[in-house]
């Protein structure tokens, strides 16, 4: 099934500013035109596939995620390949957003998925240069926005003022709020496994 990227989920220029003063400019996609900005720690992922799993991975909660693979979104998204109930990242940065999602399991395109989740993405960024900077300097705080009224200097200042990840308690944000049974036991005599959910990935539960 081929799904083109919805035009309403592609925006104008978007910028990612880092706390060290670097500013990267690309095109907004996903939750575009909503104003304001997102601040978070900027990290990268080197996987060639699995962008939907990364987006919904609780370990990326509160972070702006950069994918190093050059083309992202080519197989769309579906309701099965998720690691949690929602998109966890604060922002998403890619080198090139695929404008056509083609896969038999695809239910929607990546830009529409992020728009539904209220997450801003940016495509057209030199992710090699960005990743090299992060690899050398370590994780840096950043600010992401598609609001043209916000200056580069304001973005850099917002990045510097963003809260650090060190010491933050994200368990209330990513952990289960109440007890739940994930899977029914196939055998009444089977061993019961209890999991303390502090942000567990769904694939871990599937493998138990």
If you had to describe this structure to a student in words, what would you say it looks like?
By secondary structure, the protein is α/β, with parallel strands linked by helices. The protein has one domain: Carbamoyl-phosphate synthase small subunit, N-terminal domain (Glucose Oxidase, domain 1), CATH 3.50.30.20. The chain is 21% helix and 26% strand. The protein has a seven-stranded mixed beta barrel. Strand 4, helix 1 and strand 5 form a beta-alpha-beta unit. The mean pLDDT is 90.
Task: Trace the largest sheet across and list its strands.
Answer: 2-3-10-7-5-4-11
Question: In sequence order, what are the helices and strands, one letter per element?
Answer: EEEEHEEEEEHEHEHHH
Treating each run of at least 4 consecutive H or I residues as one helix, how many helices? 6
Contiguous uncertain segments of 5+ residues: none
Query: How many separate domains make up the residues?
Result: 1
How many strands, what sense, and barrel or not for the largest sheet? 7 strands, mixed, barrel
Q: Any idea what the CATH architecture is? A: 3-Layer(bba) Sandwich
Instruction: Tell me the β content.
Output: 25-35%
- Looking at the structure, the CATH topology is Glucose Oxidase, domain 1
The whole-angstrom Rg is 18 Å
> How many angstroms separate the termini?
32 Å
CATH-assigned homologous superfamily: Carbamoyl-phosphate synthase small subunit, N-terminal domain
SS-based structural class? alpha/beta
